[in-house]
Amino acid sequence: MTYFPNVTKIKFEGKDTTNDFAFRHYNPEEVVEGKTMREHFRFALAYWHTMTQDGSDPFGAPVNQRSWFGETEMETAHNRVDAFFEILEKLDVDYFCFHDVDIAPAGESLEEFFANLDEITDHIKEKMDETGKKLLWNTANMFSHPRFNNGAASSNNAEVFAYAAAQVKKGLDLSKKLGGENYVFWGGREGYETLLNTDMKFEQDNIARLFKMAIAYGEKIGHKPQFLIEPKPKEPSKHQYDFDAATTMSFILKHGLEGDFKLNLEANHATLAGHTFEHELNVARNFDSLGSIDANQGDMLLGWDTDEFPTNIYDTTFTMLEILANDGLAPGGINFDAKVRRSSFAMEDLLLAHIAGMDTFARGLKAAAKLREDRFFEDLKEKRYASYKEGIGANIIADKEDFESLTEYALKNDNPQLESSHIELVKSKLNDYLV
């Protein structure tokens, strides 16, 4: 069965095309800074928002028009696999991501859930072999079910910890089966509501225990994907342990997980943490821990995770500047953790939304490459920190000074002369690269 009979494979046609089902800026074979766009982006589709999101919200029933529903949950799950790979093929996207509960119904027991996962991943493996599509990462949903009310690895209930461990073990088995390049942990409920009844250190130590078990199991089965932690500051947990990139890196370093774990950063999560996305990317990069990203954007007027498709060229330009400075994301990539708006309920909107996001990232890449070619930011920073290139500044950087010598210098030079940053001019010139 064909789920999008009126849409052929989407190709690059240039910015002057009038075809809505064409790329205007994303040309997968165009070379930028020595790599093709396909290689730079490693685009991936999120199974959850693409296949299971129904358009409902806290105030309204589902509105999305979808044609893959069958008479049973498993029939629907199989139909979704076929429809999903049709979308991957028509968008010419190489990678995909999923939670375990996205692809298969949970059933009445853990044993039945695992059997359902085995059956559906057999189908997925067949489609992967047929199309050449690859698994960027998978993960276990350990936040939706009521059993995870008080967390998963951080739960006060040891039986819940054991259940979470079983889900992660199965997730790693599936990752090996499907050749997954990364495995993500998102602590959806790994946090606390109040310290009145919470031992924060105990809970965080238990999370680290689960992570170390995952490392050990990966080594045991001969499958070592890049492990990723995805920070998010709130929603649903009031005080979430993986608040932002810096908090998560502190956890990684404290528990000796560096080298095995990097970060999977999401733009909308940065917004919720009160940061720009480029801030989060820069923090991770400074720790040599920028592993992969989830591409979306939030609504600045709303205080929750709206997961809109990325259409802001400023944001994608700054994102690509960090990714280029990181020498890419491989084995990570750019996963569209984004959902169509409630008013975009037609089947074809799934394709149109991804085209918009991919085109926006292509424009961001080209702008970022031009900024780097012209050394726009490099020259600004060199000028700003020029006082450290010679004299007392060079001595400070070379660790040739101490408090006594610097005090002596300051007493003789106690009227430092600052220069204006002219930041408004800088932003105005930046606009020339983006528009």
UniProtKB/TrEMBL annotation:
The gene is xylA. Mg(2+) 1 binds at residues 230, 266, 294, 337. Binds 2 magnesium ions per subunit. Belongs to the xylose isomerase family. It comes from Streptococcus moroccensis. It catalyses: alpha-D-xylose = alpha-D-xylulofuranose. The active site is at 99, 102. Keywords: Carbohydrate metabolism, Cytoplasm, Isomerase, Magnesium, Metal-binding, Xylose metabolism. One of its GO terms (molecular function) is xylose isomerase activity. Its main location: cytoplasm. Its EC number is 5.3.1.5. Homotetramer. It is found in: Cytoplasm. This is Xylose isomerase. Mg(2+) 2 binds at residues 266, 269, 305, 307. InterPro entries: Xyl_isomerase-like_sf, Xylose_isom_bac, Xylose_isomerase. Its cofactor is Mg(2+).
